């Protein structure tokens, strides 16, 4: 599971994302967390958007492409 969090998101507290990621890790479920300290619910800054897109596309490639 890929968890993406903007630390300025008032809808989903960062503690919930960290808790979900920690629970996944403890259960041995493949997971990754990407935190943007300067973003809200949407990733809008250009450099952050590029990182978001690369991370999501890499994650999808890793898990959906046939070997």
Largest sheet: 2 strands, parallel
Poorly predicted parts: none
Q: Helicity level, as a percent range?
A: 40-55%
Spatial strand order of the main sheet: 1-2
> Per DSSP, what share of the residues sits in E-state strands of 2 or more residues?
5-15%
What does the model show?
Helix content is 48%, strand content 15%. It is of the alpha+beta class. It has one domain. It has a two-stranded parallel sheet with strand order 1-2. The two termini are 19 Å apart.
List keywords for this structure.
flat, 2 strands, 67 residues, alpha+beta, two-stranded parallel ribbon, 15% strand, 48% helix
Record the SSE blueprint.
Blueprint: E1 2-6, H1 14-26, E2 32-36, H2 46-64
Parallel strand pairs: 1-2
Can you summarize this structure?
The chain has one domain. The protein is built from 2 helices and 2 strands, in the order βαβα.
